[in-house]
């Protein structure tokens, strides 16, 4: 009995160390999403490419990536080449131009290439708030009925795509029978 | 020390002033302003994580403050505003998370640890007391005998020196 009590501090330490060890591998930037399993929120916003055109939820055709980006976001620039490559492979990518300047955004698409089927202009970030966006880039994966199935926070690169997003995308393609 | 304290207090008041100057919202009355302040102080910024949206300079915190203000002006209740944000950003945005099975440890962990500490303290104290009343009984019979022999010896070696003074 006495021996066991002497082991108590050690046990306490081990529990604490266990928690801290787990903490090493948690990504604190990723706070999860409440939108998984829900449809894209309703909106009516102007197209970035054709400002006279109003876009809505029904214009998105899944399975697709919905990428939230802005010209003020350096990580988006790093990610852009990867999106170009994905679009080249036939992956459907839609853009939400988040709290940005329309002219700067259009220039960016001319200079760096345009991987997007179309871009929704969200200058006030209202669609962003409804989507639970808190920075850029963020990417949602939607299925054929426009339901959000996955959210990725941060830049998509080759390894993120291969390990996390591509298998999900393929699954959604299979569901859609394509 | 006193000077340091004054400087610290001065710094604190100055920073409070700076914080209040970030947004210029106008409220119908003081109660409304209080509601706004208490709401933005208990809502956590999703981007910067260790700040509430009142203190954070992140763009999203600014947007969420604007959202809270807008909803207050529309006459929505505190619960409606909090539900709106939780439905989009999850429980993460709450500095006062709801009591669920997942947050049991968070809510009752510290109290549990304190209680555990007191129980441990009680056990240790009670054991000490138990030992004292038991006296010298933990000497073996052999040791008792040696002790008695030592006590009965007369201090002959030291006696002469003591007599000098």
From TrEMBL, chain A:
The keyword Disulfide bond applies. GO terms for biological process: cytochrome complex assembly. PROSITE patterns: THIOREDOXIN_1, THIOREDOXIN_2. It is found in: Cell inner membrane. The keyword Disulfide bond applies. One of its GO terms (molecular function) is disulfide oxidoreductase activity. Keywords: Cytochrome c-type biogenesis, Disulfide bond, Redox-active center. One of its GO terms (cellular component) is outer membrane-bounded periplasmic space. Residues 34-170 form the Thioredoxin domain. Belongs to the thioredoxin family. DsbE subfamily. NCBIfam families: dsbE. This is Cytochrome c biogenesis protein CcmG, thiol:disulfide interchange protein DsbE.
Automatic annotation (TrEMBL), chain B:
Pfam families: CcmH. The chain crosses the membrane at residues 105-126. Keywords: Cytochrome c-type biogenesis, Heme, Iron, Membrane, Metal-binding, Signal, Transmembrane, Transmembrane helix. Residues 1-20 form the signal peptide. GO terms for molecular function: metal ion binding. GO terms for cellular component: plasma membrane. The keyword Transport does not apply. One of its GO terms (biological process) is cytochrome complex assembly. Residues 10-151 form the CcmH/CycL/Ccl2/NrfF N-terminal domain. PANTHER family: CYTOCHROME C-TYPE BIOGENESIS PROTEIN CCMH. This is Cytochrome c-type biogenesis protein. It comes from Pseudomonas borbori.
């Amino acid at each position: 009995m006495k021996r066991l009590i002497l082991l108590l501090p050690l046990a306490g330490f081990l529990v604490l160390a266990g928690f801290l060890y787990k903490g090493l591998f948690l990504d604190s930037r990723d706070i999860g999403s409440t939108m998984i399993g829900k449809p894209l929120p309703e909106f009516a916003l102007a197209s970035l490419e054709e400002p006279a055109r109003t876009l809505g939820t029904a214009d998105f055709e899944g399975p697709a990536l919905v990428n939230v980006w802005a010209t003020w976001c350096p990580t988006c620039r790093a990610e852009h080449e990867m999106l170009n490559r994905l679009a080249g492979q036939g992956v459907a990518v839609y853009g939400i131009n988040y709290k940005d300047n329309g002219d700067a955004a259009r220039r960016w698409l001319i200079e760096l290439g345009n991987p997007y089927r179309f871009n929704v202009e969200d200058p006030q970030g209202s669609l962003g708030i409804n989507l639970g966006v808190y920075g850029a880039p963020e990417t949602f994966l939607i299925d054929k009925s426009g339901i959000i199935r996955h959210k990725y926070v941060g830049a998509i690169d080759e390894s993120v795509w291969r390990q996390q997003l591509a298998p999900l995308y393929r699954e959604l393609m299979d569901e859609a029978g394509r | 020390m006193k000077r340091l304290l004054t400087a610290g207090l001065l710094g604190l008041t100055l920073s409070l002033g700076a914080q209040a100057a970030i947004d210029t919202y106008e409220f119908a009355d003081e109660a409304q302003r209080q509601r706004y302040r208490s709401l933005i102080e208990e809502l956590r910024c999703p981007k910067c994580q260790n700040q509430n949206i009142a203190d954070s300079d992140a763009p999203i915190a600014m947007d969420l403050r604007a959202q809270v203000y807008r909803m207050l002006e529309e006459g929505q209740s505190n619960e409606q505003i909090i539900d709106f944000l939780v439905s989009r950003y999850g429980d993460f945005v709450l500095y006062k998370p709801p009591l669920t099975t997942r947050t049991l440890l968070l809510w009752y962990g510290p109290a549990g640890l304190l209680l555990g500490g007191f129980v441990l303290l009680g056990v240790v104290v009670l054991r000490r007391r138990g030992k004292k009343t038991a006296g010298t009984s933990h000497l073996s019979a052999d040791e008792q005998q040696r002790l008695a022999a030592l006590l009965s010896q007369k201090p002959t070696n030291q006696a002469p020196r003591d007599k000098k003074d």
